[in-house]
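Recap from last week: sequence in, structure out.
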Amino acid sequence: MSLFNSLTEAKDVHPSVAVHRDKVLSLVREMEKVVVGQDHMVSRLLIALFSNGHVLLEGVPGLAKTLTISTLSRALDLGFSRIQFTPDLLPADLIGTLIYNQSKGSFEVKKGPIFAQMVLADEINRSPAKVQSALLEAMQERQVTIGDQTYPMASPFLVLATQNPIDQEGTYPLPEAQVDRFMMKVFVDYPKREEEKAIMRRMARTKTDIEVRSVFSPRDIFDIRAQIDETQLSAKLEDYIVDLVMATREPESYGLPKLGEYLEYGASPRASLALNLGARAHAFLSGRTFVLPEDIKAIAPDVLNHRLILTYEAEAEEVSARDCVDLILSHVKL
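Predicted structure tokens:
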């Protein structure tokens, strides 16, 4: 079942959510004109959009990561910028620089492509530390410093990044501090057999220009964010979120002594914030004004997997961060 069909067939949609439902459905419908399958990736991009968070997409080449983000930008009435990260990219290429105006005898600011509402950072791990540090301020503080002046980013501001996990030549591992700024890291998998056939039928042409209408405005995004802020999350579910995060730091206290051998560092408080907001956005997409445990469990792997730093023992035993998250979800009870 496609994401559009699952949204359409959701039962008992609350009236306050139904107000925005048609807009969200029209957005998904426009995206499905181009993107076949990949419902998990699309839903996580929408959750990030409505939660004011950034997303890191990881997958092998050809899985429509860049295509999905560019299609989303066409369906949104937002300023869009694509930045291809390369080893020779400089911070000034990203944020801009001061240029001397000879006629005026003074320096003027030339803003870079980061000054857009929606930024696609393609193959983000191909650039060195100086470029990553320039991006860090924009992602966290929603501002950029050029010279001695600080410039606020437009709102909404969203960084959607992609990286290739298999081609490691000429890449730089992202600093932990930067990875932590991404609300979610989403692993993109191969399409199913029927989806592969649909992709071939739709895209195997010399001309593949498909018209995507702009159906979503910044005001729609802000209205949905206000709705998500009002979504109820009980005190017990708050405790459950804290328990999940604490279990990554003190697994022995939650009856997971073996996990302690695999985790060098657990998730930061940003994980708790992301779980809270992401669960509310997931509940909104499900047509509810309250959060269920299933909402938290659904997004927990995407929120936690990139925030866990594994030990050598975990790597030696081929235990992944996702394995650790699954173990925590199966043991920590509400």
